[in-house]
Design brief:
With 138 residues, the protein is mainly alpha-helical. Helices cover 50% and strands 8% of the residues. It has helices at 2-11, 17-20, 25-39, 80-91, 98-111, 115-128; strands spanning 48-51, 64-66, 70-73. The protein has a 3-stranded mixed sheet with strand order 1-3-2, with helices on one face. It starts with a helix and ends in a 10-residue tail after the last helix.
């Protein structure tokens, strides 16, 4: 499932300039607080968000979420798209699966203002990642 999520991000979501613009830590933390407040209903505190080197175990630096407590954003991934992806891990569905994609797309709906683009995202997942995504799945 992981390769499907990463593949979709690499092929499609990385082309959305607003989501991929590099941001300051202050801006990203502010966005994270809004996302957390709207999409997380449990009792855990929002994870600490910081800039770091990332994890290079796959041959290139990648941002990561450490449990539910910390998000590390590596260089070139200090953007809203990566923050949303890592926050979804912290919100609950740690593994890339159906629940992960459901929460991910729900949050993306808040940030992708162009409904034509959002429909393309829904259609891409519906048509090419049926095992991962059903827009009516609850």
């Amino acid at each position: 499932m992981t390769r499907h999520v990463y593949g979709f991000e690499d092929r499609y979501l990385t082309t959305l300039a607003d989501l991929n613009k590099q941001q300051s830590l202050k801006v990203l933390i502010s966005q994270a607080k809004k996302i957390w407040q709207k999409h997380y209903s449990g009792s855990r505190a929002i994870p600490t968000i910081k800039f770091g080197k990332g994890d290079s175990s796959l041959g290139r630096p990648l941002s990561y979420t450490l449990g539910y407590s910390e998000i590390v954003l590596c260089p070139k991934q200090r953007n809203l798209l990566t923050l949303i992806h890592e926050l979804v891990h912290a919100i609950g569905p740690c593994q890339h699966g159906r629940n992960f994609v459901k929460v991910y797309v729900t949050i993306l709906d808040d940030f992708v203002k162009d409904k034509h683009v959002m429909n393309k995202i829904h259609n891409e997942f519906s048509n090419h990642h049926k095992r991962l995504y059903n827009r009516h799945y609850k």
